[in-house]
Design brief:
The complex is a heterodimer of chains A (288) and B (179). Chain A has 288 residues and is of the alpha/beta class. Chain A contains 15 helices and eight strands. In chain A, 53% of the residues lie in helices and 10% in strands. In chain A, the strands form two sheets. In chain A, strands 2-1-3-4 form a four-stranded parallel sheet. With 179 residues, chain B is mostly helical. Chain B has two domains: 97 residues, Alpha-helical ferredoxin (Fumarate Reductase Iron-sulfur Protein, Chain B, domain 2); 56 residues, no CATH class. The chains are: A alpha/beta (288), B mainly alpha (179). At the A-B interface, α1, α2, α3, α4 and α9 of A face α6, α7, α8, α9 and α10 of B.
Chain lengths: 288, 179
């Protein structure tokens, strides 16, 4: 049974327990063991990296060192955590001086980082280690004919030398549920979440550009794999209605929710009522 | 030289001339010594980064200009700019740079230098304070929602003290303490 260190971060458990619950249920059904990491805290997000690079390095090195102890890969459902851990590890592997300095700090916690641990987005781990064929076998209510647009999220995809990800992974995972991947011009564009603290109007504009591109391409739903992107694309639809008078009515679902529904789980099990834009239409497809 | 209308005005230019005496030649080396600055001087100002940036249209200093300003030594202008804090960190500029300049990463470096000098937006300073006080960005408030979904009310394995201890002794502590 594939076994992982699960680094949940702070946003998923506080803001999107539906993502967390759907992930755990899907993992169980796929015979994957996800063990919550013991004694870990926040990654600080790219915000911390912006004003305190060294502090950000140390807090993430500590998490990495804890994960390294049992030899299992670290997996996370959050792009912010993914980027922080992956980026800090990339830097420390390439900078012996900082690795030494950080390890001096880690001694205070009786920890040492060698840099051998692997960090992965949990969806990529399911793709690579379980595989789409095994996943497809568990799909009992395929989402045949449902057009879904993927928003991967910047920090999952770039910079590619750090993230080691490709969009095809998410596309194949979505197709495994029976859904159709809807391509749209602004697929690479940022959701705007990171600029919210300093310029809210700009953040709303970015979400709007993105949603319009998705709607114009004919998608019925949006798939996300990050709580910050999910929050921004889901919640801002209400702000956009107020600011621009435009209604997009595009339900935003986390990948494990989509997969769980296709595997036959019901809406309550995946907390569908917590998705702010009503996600009922997906149920219509499933009961057709 | 051809006589014009006899006025003493400088000739019209597309951009304001740069006052050479205000440039700080060490700024380039400062950035190059930071984690992501190795390729900085490979920039040949092709503006691909600016074409890739989804918000450059509303910036006074475009991404390629910020890189050029660093190379020229316009330290104050770069570190005091609103642009570095509005950067989405979407890495589209960096991904497309034909010279492998780590544009987004360099903007991260600039923010760190600005923060060290106390040039930090209030919203970001507040965020630093919250991180230090709570030990995380988001705290679980609706534990009943979690229980409804068969989750533990609290996050299993969470420990926030070490995070606070580390950041109290790094720049986060200085930013919050030095208000």
């Amino acid at each position: 049974m594939p076994t992982y260190n699960l680094y949940m971060g702070c946003s998923v458990p506080a803001n999107y327990p539906n993502y967390e619950a759907a992930l755990l249920k899907v993992a169980k059904a796929l015979d994957v063991e996800l063990n919550y990491m013991e004694g870990v805290g926040c990654c600080g997000s790219p915000n911390l990296r912006a004003f305190d690079y060294y502090g950000w390095l140390v807090v993430n090195a500590r998490t990495l060192a804890i994960g390294e102890q049992n030899g299992h890969d670290i997996v996370t459902p959050c792009n912010g955590c993914f980027a922080s851990l992956k980026d800090a590890l990339y830097h420390l592997r390439h900078d012996k001086k900082d690795m030494k300095r950080v390890n001096e700090e880690l001694k205070k916690f009786d920890l040492e980082l060698r840099g051998t641990v692997r960090v992965r987005h949990v969806v990529e781990a399911l793709y690579t280690d379980v595989g789409v064929d095994a996943i497809r076998e568990k799909v009992t209510r395929p989402l045949d004919g449902v057009g879904i647009a993927i928003h991967a999220g910047c920090h999952l995809m770039r910079p590619a030398d750090v993230t080691e990800m490709s969009i095809e992974i998410l596309e194949e995972m979505l197709r495994a549920t029976g859904a159709t991947v809807v391509q749209y011009p602004l697929w690479k564009q940022c959701c705007g979440a990171t600029v919210l603290p300093v310029n809210e109007a700009l953040a709303v504009r970015l979400a709007r550009d993105k949603l319009r591109s998705i709607k114009d391409a004919g998608a019925e739903f949006i798939m996300v794999v990050c709580p910050a992107c999910g929050n921004q694309l889901d919640l801002q639809q209400f702000g956009i209605k107020d600011t621009y008078g435009e209604g997009y009515d595009l339900p935003v679902l986390f990948y494990p929710q989509i997969l769980a529904l296709a595997m036959g789980m019901d809406e309550e099990e995946v907390g569908l009522s917590m998705n702010r834009v009503p996600a009922d239409p997906i149920l219509d497809h499933l009961t057709e | 030289m051809t006589e014009t209308d006899g006025s003493e005005r400088p000739p019209a230019t597309l951009i304001e001339p740069i006052d050479m005496s205000t440039l700080d030649a060490s700024f380039r080396r400062e950035i190059q010594s930071m984690p992501d600055g190795d390729e900085l001087s490979a920039c040949f100002a092709c503006t691909t980064c600016t074409a890739a940036c989804p918000i450059a249209n509303q910036w006074e200093y475009k991404p390629h200009q910020l890189i050029r300003m660093i190379i020229l030594g316009m330290r104050d202008e770069v570190l005091s700019s609103k642009e570095i804090w509005e950067c989405l960190t979407c890495f589209q500029c960096q991904e497309r740079c034909p010279q492998k300049v780590r544009v987004t990463d360099i903007i991260f470096d600039c923010k760190n230098l600005a923060a060290e000098e106390g040039k930090i937006p209030d919203a970001i300073r507040n965020l630093a304070r919250e991180l230090l006080e709570k030990g995380q960005l988001y705290v679980i408030t609706a534990d009943w929602e979690r229980e409804d979904l068969d989750l533990e009310p609290e996050l299993p394995g969470l420990s926030t003290e070490e995070f606070k201890t580390i950041l109290r002794n790094t720049r986060t502590g200085r930013i919050v303490g030095g208000e």
